[in-house]
């Protein structure tokens, strides 16, 4: 991100603790410019998901601020949060629990449009058809229930739902970790195509450095609730400065020569 750009979404010295427990986030400052892709990596328990919840406005920081387009996010303002929800959408880890089994695929994709008061019935139906095509699913998928689809297909449905209000940023929490290896690449390629064709930014939370290298130009490393290193993904993967980043790289399985 250049100095001339106002971040679309940022945290400013954010600390967060659950009740009286020790903080799981400590003075975290991170920013995403419009259209930028950032990978947030770290071991289990580093605070990645907690930071994602703070960025999504689902959890208020104990101290510090979340900034949306340079202004402090006001969780008390319904109008402010509608604007935020339209611009920033999540994709969660488990495609089997993130879709309501009682709702058809079409109903799931339409839900954010209804909650954000976007469009009428006809325009929403057209948007569902457009999105199913965008994620390579047949039009008749709209009338079917999640149980009829594989894990990879369900994750594509979840991505379609996130795209419904035409967001500017996707916050994705381990979006392919619950999928079989054979279908992970298809979802990764979908994210790559969406970024290329629609200019949507992404914050990707992952422990998988291979996926981060495929999707993110910049990377931030979280250790015990603190950002310990940040920079271009290629540099951090080839010449990291921090010993924790080097340990993460050393733990990546490598194929035998």
From TrEMBL:
Signal peptide: none annotated. PROSITE patterns: ABC_TRANSPORTER_1, ABC_TRANSPORTER_2. SMART domains: AAA. Pfam families: ABC_tran (PF00005), oligo_HPY (PF08352). One of its GO terms (molecular function) is ATP binding. Keywords: ATP-binding, Nucleotide-binding, Transport. Residues 9-249 form the ABC transporter domain. Belongs to the ABC transporter superfamily. This is ABC transporter ATP-binding protein. It comes from Microbacterium pullorum.
